[in-house]
Every structure is written in C-alpha cells, then in structure tokens.
Amino acid sequence: MPTHAEKRILPYSEEQLFDMVADVRRYPEFLPWCVGARVLTRTDKELTADLTIGFKMFRETFRSQVLLERPHHVHVRYLTGPFRYLNNHWRFRPVAGGTEVDFFVDFEFKSRLLQAVIGTVFNEAVRLMVRAFERRAMALYRRAPPPAAPATPAPTA
C-alpha cells in the first residue's frame, strides 16, 4: 500500500505539463521501468491505455482509463492487471513563475512477492519517475536563449 504525494513548481504552463502527462504513448521514451505503452482509445476527455512495466525479472502490463480534464487534472483509473488497486492523479495550477504540479500515487500489487520487491524501493522509484517527468518537460519546453543582438557597425568619422 505505498503512497506518494509531491508538489513542485515548474517553469512551464499548465497546458504544456498537461499535454506531456497526457501523452501516454511516449512514456517508454523517458520513464524508468516503462517498457511499453499502447493507447487503445482516445478522445478529448479520456483515453484507455496499456502500460508495460519491467523491473529486474518482473514484467507486467496493466490497463488504465485516463480521464483528461484539460488543462487542470489528469486522473488515472485502474482497469486490469497486476494491481489490487491503483490511484494516480496529476493536478496543475498556475502560480507565479509557472505551474504548481500536485502528483499523487497509491497502489497495491496482487502478488505479495511483487509488493515486497517494489515496497523496498518504492519511494526512490517514484522520486525517479517524478524527476523523469521534470527532465522530459525541460527537454520538450526549454526556453530558447534570446537571440544575440546584431553587431552594430563602428561609427565612422
């Protein structure tokens, strides 16, 4: 029954962060232990996806319904797979300097063995995942440096 909640302020818009979190099919490109993602259905309000996680000798696929409340909230509802339950949400709120991101995850595996293995590294694993999303945002939305000022010719006398 590991639970993790975290708040961060990131220098990006809530729309940018919402789009990044809602782009589930790209998770294997940057998210540790996510070895596969398949979006089965998608509308503006929700998507259904299978994610495959791999950790050491374990490899499990689970299906979730992802409710999309643009641009403020992404809520993951567990459907099938190796968990007894999984609750996960992202909330985005504009603040001075960017967006406050509220991340929450709570789950329990059906397998006692898998729960025991994950339980020993859960907090560090979730911190790595949150950092992976932060690095992804930086890679996607990094602000370009201002253009160099054009050289001005020296005055002639």
Automatic annotation (TrEMBL):
BP GO annotations: cellular respiration
GO function term, MF aspect, one: ubiquinone binding
Signal peptide range in chain numbering: none
Ranges where the Coenzyme Q-binding protein COQ10 START domain occurs: 10-134
Pfam families, sorted: Polyketide_cyc (PF03364)
Alphabetical list of CDD domains matching this protein: COQ10p_like
Domain of life assignment: Bacteria
InterPro entries xrefs: COQ10-like (IPR044996), COQ10_START (IPR005031), START-like_dom_sf (IPR023393)
Family listed: Belongs to the ribosome association toxin RatA family.
Official protein name in the record: Coenzyme Q-binding protein COQ10
Biological source species: Falsiroseomonas stagni DSM 19981
